[in-house]
């Protein structure tokens, strides 16, 4: 192995390791009387006549190293030594150019490429455009180059940048932890979620890749537009939001300010973290009005902010809180008169109200994909009469009923504290003055804003432990399901709502669900929706699995009703009958979760209420692929299930 460059030794007569030495060595050997004296002459000339070298050779014989391994190690060490020499010495321009010219002939050798890259990093100001063009055409160089060199290569070849950044972006979209966290509509620490998103490794890799290169920054914005135009996924809006906040954290604020949407994103981020005071709201309104007036493509990047699922959750929750405060502050007890008074207040304050601003921003975000896809940058007006006098009025009427029922519930619990958990009451009939009906169902089917607010109301009621309101509302969701998977915003909103309901029940209401007739109505609603999508079936199975815990069993034992654990297997069997189409591939996808549920059922209360083939024949057949002879007990459950997983 030899190198195409020459490393001068202290004595100019000594031989180097380069190719010129090969000719000199050949001439020395040819001019010697015999091979032995010739080798001695070369050793003397090259200054490698090392004393006692013979004593080392027996060690080499017993080292177990092959000649290949030894030579490979020598070559690698020579390469590293040369890289260290480059770092240590100073080369003038002439020497740098001479080295690059010679090395360019041997770029197929990894050791040469490492040396070239080391020289380019140290003398980056000497790299000409022609040299960058030469480097960018070598795929090995692009892969092996440090980021400082990669960045310059990407700036000269945007297609290369796209090739490297796209897989990282796709991994961001596939990140399940980010995806499921973004779909939680309540019960999370907003600041922690934003920090978790911003610290995503893929996002940070892209930020590092861009560095302070304005060309790459601009190209990144162009790629985000292309990706969003191709499918319109809300997760892309999350990525853009997190990208700018990550760039700010990396002290690239001046770069961020080159983009017209940065201040808008900054104010929204600040408001989510610290609260939307009048200053933040006024700044956002001013930027929004300016963008709406110009009706240019720039409006899309602002609208994308309000299609980020986290931002949607914050603003829809704000709308619910505002409407509920109207109800809670009123001393009026007659429902229709109370709501009429509130509607008059809303109409009077509408133009300056936070309610209108939040509603407008949700409407703004809902049109982001439509605007970029159609290239029509005029924002359609929201039908305020339909929303304020119709939809919000119906929400207020339901909230009035919520308040009345909560007052009765508090009185009931005060008389008997065990009633906080054990509840034998059934769902009461809906008051006649609540007229949420077919008109509102049609609105849910066609209005993204209505869906976001209504789903947030249902999740809020779940969080507050109000199964009556949840049970009344879920049929309207069922009646307004999206007609196809192409309606992705509709689809993701409803999936987010169901995920949030399940998460809240697992976190706060598992024992209540098992002890309450009214909560069981909600479970029935969840079971009935499982045929709609595999993702919903998986959520419901996840819920059932979480019932099988020592914490739940211990609380039920304390209450004297541990036998209610058997309800879980009854629900699971009913879900399998209702929600699984035996002719589709869904069964295989769910088997793992069914097996886990069976296993968990054997580990609680000594497996007394475990899932067995005699009580859950359909579930058992799905889980064990029709093998009805499987004998499962708490002792051998783990080994048997591992065999089937």
UniProtKB/TrEMBL annotation:
User: Which InterPro entries is this protein grouped with?
Assistant: COBRA1
Q: Name one GO biological process term.
A: negative regulation of transcription elongation by RNA polymerase II
Q: What Pfam families does this protein's entry cite?
A: COBRA1
State a GO cellular component annotated for this protein. Answer: NELF complex
Protein name (database record): Cofactor of BRCA1
Q: What is the lineage of its organism?
A: Eukaryota, Fungi, Fungi incertae sedis, Mucoromycota, Glomeromycotina
